[in-house]
Amino acid sequence: MSYTTTYYHIIFRTYHSEKTIPIEHERELYAYIYGIAKNLRCQTYRIGGMPDHIHLFVSLPPTLSLSAFMQRIKTSSSKWLKANTNFPDFRGWGHEYAGFSYGFKDKNMIVNYILRQKEHHKRTSFAEEYRNFLEENGVDIDERYFLRDDK
């Protein structure tokens, strides 16, 4: 038997970073995403965000790649959101996502970070937050494509 754990902090945004996730209905969306992850045999530790983006902290089974997981999350939730009258302005997800791996010791830090999203974004824009995560994780940013959906 093999033993593995993979913890990912994933950040993805709405198309053109539009504020199309009403705060009063965000829990419906989070519950739907939780269900998708559960059906994929993933452990979800926290989902949270703002009207223009979502943070997920999950553990994936060894048979599921991060890209396959995100494809399922974004495709399924996009169809659901477009059919749900509580999200009338939703047009889709942005093309990109960011996924960073963490260890078990980082779990509480990431969960608490996601829990504090509303407070955090009183001081910091999504673009600043996203750029900081990319830079902190050694990702080279190509400014021609940063937060662009029309490539």
* CATH C-level name: Alpha Beta
Order of helices and strands: EHEEHEHHH
Biggest β-sheet strands, sense, barrel: 4 strands, antiparallel
CATH superfamily descriptor: Transposase IS200-like
Distance between the termini: 44 Å
Spatial extent as radius of gyration: 15 Å
CATH architectural grouping: 2-Layer Sandwich
Poorly predicted spans: none
> What general outline do the C-alpha atoms trace?
globular
- Total helical elements: 5
**Total separate domains:** 1
Helix content: 25-40%
Write down how many β-strands occur, each being a DSSP E stretch of 2 or more residues: 4
Read across the widest sheet, the strand sequence of neighbours is 2-3-1-4
What is the residue-averaged pLDDT?
Answer: 94
Descriptive notes:
With 151 residues, this protein is of the alpha+beta class. The protein has a single domain (7-136), classed as Transposase IS200-like (Alpha-Beta Plaits, 2-Layer Sandwich). It is 37% helix and 22% strand. The chain is built from 5 helices and 4 strands, in the order E-H-E-E-H-E-H-H-H. The protein has helices at residues 26-39, 66-83, 107-115, 117-120, 126-136; strands at 7-14, 43-50, 53-59, 93-102. It has a 4-stranded antiparallel sheet with strand order 2-3-1-4, with helices on both faces. The longest helix is centred in the middle third of the chain and has 18 residues, at 66-83. The protein is globular, with a radius of gyration of 15 Å. The termini are far apart. The model has no long low-confidence stretch (mean pLDDT 94).
